[in-house]
Write a structure and sequence with these properties.
Elements lengths: L1 H9 L4 H27 L5 H26 L9
Helix pairs in contact: 1-2, 2-3
Length: 81
């Protein structure tokens, strides 16, 4: 819930402020990944659940990383042909 709230907060912000919020989201995502690993290690979740959760978290991480990269190095818009 907190990550979703931060995403909504980040979206309308200027890039510098947005980047700070996105970095907070990245830390929270890493914390969730750590908890998922602990849950698997202590057998709260099984291997199939672990794999499914990790794949989903990795995809979220890729999307978040793309958003961060786009802010750090915005692509120049190309004129229409």
């Amino acid at each position: 819930m907190e990550i979703i709230e931060l995403i909504f907060l980040a979206n309308p912000k200027p890039d510098k402020s947005k980047l700070l919020i996105l970095n907070k989201i990245d830390i929270k995502l890493k914390i969730i990944q750590t908890f998922v690993r602990i849950f698997f290690d202590v057998q709260i979740i099984n291997q199939a659940e672990y794999i499914q959760l990790q794949e989903s978290l990795q995809e979220i991480g890729r999307m978040l990383g793309g958003w961060i990269r786009d802010i750090k190095d915005p692509k120049k818009e190309t004129p229409a042909d």
